[in-house]
Amino acid sequence: MADEDSTQQRRNTKGRQRNRGRSGRPRQYSAKAPSQRQRATDPARLTAFQILQAVTHEDAYANLVLPTRIRRNKLDRQDAGFATELTYGTLRSLGTYDAILARCVDRSLKKLDRPVLDALRLGTHQLLNMRVPAHAALDTTVALVRDQIGTGPSGFVNAVLRKVSQRTLEEWLEELAPGDSDQDLAIRYAHPPWILRAVKQSLVTNGRNVEDFRSVLEANNSAPELNLIALPGIGDLEPVLEYGAEASPLAPDAAVYSGGDAGRIPGVADGTVRVQDIGSQLTARALVGARDVTAGEAWLDMAAGPGGKAAVLAALAQAHGATLQANDVSEHRTKLVTQALRVVNEDVWTTSVADGTALAADPANAQRFDRILLDAPCTGLGALRRRPESRWRRTPQDLATLTQLQSQLLDAALAMLKPGGLLAYVTCSPHIAETTLQVNDLLKRQPDVTLLDSASALQQVAHQDDDGSVLARESITAGDTDANTAQLWPDLHRTDAMFFALLTR
């Protein structure tokens, strides 16, 4: 009877249980009666949890699996937007959130079950970086854990997130990263120290102030707009603009959109309009626009998968009377290329599956192509806005393998280039080992190769105004000579950090 009376005394007239008072504070009632507490997670948060699991467990890329999961879970536009913000925001700030959670957990984060850690990360993002009331972030995260992991860890997750909620994000950063050391800055801006140092080095190499690294890192942490291109001579940009997109100030036939699902945009489903970063669009266009095209030219996209730049090149080849061979080492990615090229006349393009060096070893390809695009495999550090998980997945050790491959592919490309032909070397990275140093090493080992005015080639295909190109020369190159490379920046150009070098032999 006493136990029953005691239990009754811990609830008010509405059935809400009293929290035990601590440190002399009066006892308080919980926000909800047990019967009212959320028991199952909502579809938007479930989707974000599933994507985080795919990224951390299966090395998936969020930008590839999120659209499919949104459709499978039948999210409406509002829930899809919430799931997208929660997923990408959590992935971008993973390092920051782990540093905070490490202060709130009484064991190493490595000892936590990965699903529990991912749920804690999602809850932390809602508490510190979204317009979600604290009680809702706590309640829904605990419900997610109870529904997807089990009742056992739910109390632990609740306790940890309550500790997280006791400070704002800025208060946590002031405690954990008060200084200007690389380690402090890495926590504050959610970039591993080696990437932070690489950005600083690239800024100096490309003629920018080293202090601009903060604006670059902040741009990497911002949600990117959706970039679109109406394929030249094939797609129609007008319906895209009527749908709500805005014409790009930087590139022709291009638009930016921030309204959500790209699949509903006119032209996207049939492939005449494509989702593609405007920096990528410009590098493909620059290879064609750098010099007049002679009818009958043969072009090669050497590493074409998944087909974005190949689609632009094929459309331009159709307009200029050229042909394109789109090659990739992966059969799966080559199928994606074929899908991307389906809107271009079939007599304009072919596909092939081969390693780039093996392609060059075929005597039939010796000095065969007038223009070659080598969009080389790289660390992807220039696309951290769109692929935030790359910053946590890549390591400095990856550079040794990738730079060796880039060097081999450059040599192979030059073996297939006609004398006087044009080779565009492109990477989605600002790291100097993959960009300027790679080009400099090539020029040393192949003295018959010449670096051209890459900046002018990019400027020429960008939009023009009364004063010339809207792409300011000083913003993309440190070289004032006719031999230079070009680097785009997310903070200056609202594009991925694409590198472009135009070469001839």
From TrEMBL:
Source organism of this protein record: Enteractinococcus fodinae
Domain SAM-dependent MTase RsmB/NOP-type: 202-505
Name of the molecule in the record: 16S rRNA (Cytosine967-C5)-methyltransferase
Keywords, in A-Z order: Methyltransferase, RNA-binding, S-adenosyl-L-methionine, Transferase
Region (Disordered): 1-43
GO BP: any one term: methylation
EC number(s) recorded for this UniProt protein: 2.1.1.176
GO MF annotations, alphabetized: methyltransferase activity
Top EC group: transferase
Entries under InterPro entries matching the protein: MeTrfase_RsmB-F_NOP2_cat, MeTrfase_RsmB-F_NOP2_dom, NusB-like_sf, NusB_RsmB_TIM44, RCMT, RsmB/NOL1/NOP2-like_CS, SAM-dependent_MTases_sf
Pfam name, any one: Methyltr_RsmB-F
UniProt similarity note: Belongs to the class I-like SAM-binding methyltransferase superfamily. RsmB/NOP family.
Gene3D superfamilies named in the record: NusB-like (1.10.940.10), Vaccinia Virus protein VP39 (3.40.50.150)
